[in-house]
Amino acid sequence: MSPPARPLLPLALSLFILYVVWGSTYFVIRVGVESWPPLLMAGLRFFSAGILLLLFLRLRGKPLPGWKETRNAAIVGFLLLSVGNGLVTLAEHQQVPSGLAAVMVATVPLFALIFGRLFGIASRPIEWLGIVIGMAGIILLNSGGHLAGNPWGAMMILLAALSWAFGSVWGSRVALPQGAMAGAIEMIAAGIILLVVSPLSGERLHALPSLHGFFALAYLIVFGSIIAINAYMYLIRHTTPAVATSYAYVNPVVAVLLGTAFAGETLTPREWLALAIIIVAVVLVTLGKYLFPAPAKPERDV
Q1: Residues 6 or more apart from 261 whose CB is under 8 A from it?
Q2: Is a pLDDT exceeding 90 seen at residue 114?
Q3: Most buried pick, 188, 197, 234, 286, via CB within 10 A?
Q4: Residue 192 · residue 136 · CB < 8 Å
Q5: Residue 53 near residue 227, CB atoms below 8 Å
C-alpha cells in the first residue's frame, strides 16, 4: 500500500507563509529601521519571539533541552540570527534596498554547498555549476548600481550570507533541541547578544518609534519569527528538503516586488539580470538532484 497523502492545505499554507512572509520581512525591516536602531530592533524581535515560543512549548509540556543541545542552539542562533540577520538589518539601515538585500541573502544555498564540502558532504557537478553561475550573478550585482555605491552595505550582506550558510551546515552536524524548541533557544540567544551589542555599538533610542515602527516590530516577532519558523519546521517534517528550502529563490522576487511597489526602490537592468542569474543558480543547487537525477546503476548478475 502507498503511504497516505499529506493534507494539501497545511502544506500549501506553510509554503505561502515562507514565500510571502519571509519574503516580506526585508521590506518590513526597511520600514522598522526608519525609527528603530537596527541592532536594538533585531534584538527585541528575536528575544521576544524566542521567549513567547518557549513559553508556548513549555505550556504544552515540552521539556527543556540539555546543556549540550542548548549550547549548540545558542551558537547556531549567533551565526544565523545575530550575525546573519543582524548584518542584513544594519545594511538596510544604511540604505541598501530591501530587494537587493534579499537577492544577496538568496546566495546562502550556494555558500552552504561550499561549506558542506568542507564538512565532507557529497556534492554533484550540477550543484557546482550552480555555484559558478551564482558567483557570476554576485559579481554582476556588485559591479554596478546600488551595491557598487555602498560597498560596506554589500560587504555586510555578503558576510551575513556566509555566516547563515556556515551556521546552517554546522547546525546540521551537531545535536540540537527537538522541534521548535531549537528555534526558541536560537532566537533567545541571538536576541540577548544583539541587545548587549546594541548599546556597546553606540545605539541609542532618542525618540519613541513611530506607529509604523511598532507595527513592523510586531510583524517581525509574530509572523516573521514565530509563525514562519513553525511553518518551516512543518515542511521539514512533512515534505522534501528541496520543497522546504524553495523559499530561497522565491523570497528575493517577493522582496523586490514589495520594495519597488511600496518603498519606491528601483533596480537597474543590470540588477534585474543579476537577480535572474542568482535565482537560476539557487534552483540548480537546491533542485539539481531532483531535476537531473543520477542514472540508475545497472544491477549485476549474481
Answers
A1: none
A2: no
A3: 286
A4: no
A5: no
Distance CA 85, CA 44 (A): 13
- Angle, CA 50 vertex, CA 250 and CA 39 arms, to 5°: 75
Quote the pLDDT of residue 294. Answer: 58
| Res 3: pLDDT | 45
Question: Which residue, 45, 47, 49, 66, is CA-closest to 189?
Answer: 47
CA neighbours within 13 Å on the CB side: how many for 262?
A: 13
Is the pLDDT score of 144 beyond 80? Answer: no
φ/ψ of 293, rounded to 5, equals -65, 150
**In angstroms, rounded to a whole number, what is the distance separating the alpha carbons of residues 225 and 233?**
12
The C-alpha atoms of residue 186 and residue 37 are separated, in whole angstroms, by 22
pLDDT recorded at residue 248:
77
User: Crossing angle, helix 23-32 and helix 211-221, to 10 degrees?
Assistant: 150
Residue among 238, 185, 176 at smallest CA distance from 58: 185
CA dist., res. 224 & res. 259, Å (int): 17
Identify residue 90 by its one-letter amino acid code. L
- pLDDT beyond 60 at 29: yes
Note the helical H segments in 33-66: 38-59
Are 264 and 43 spatial neighbours (Cβ–Cβ below 8 Å)?
Answer: no
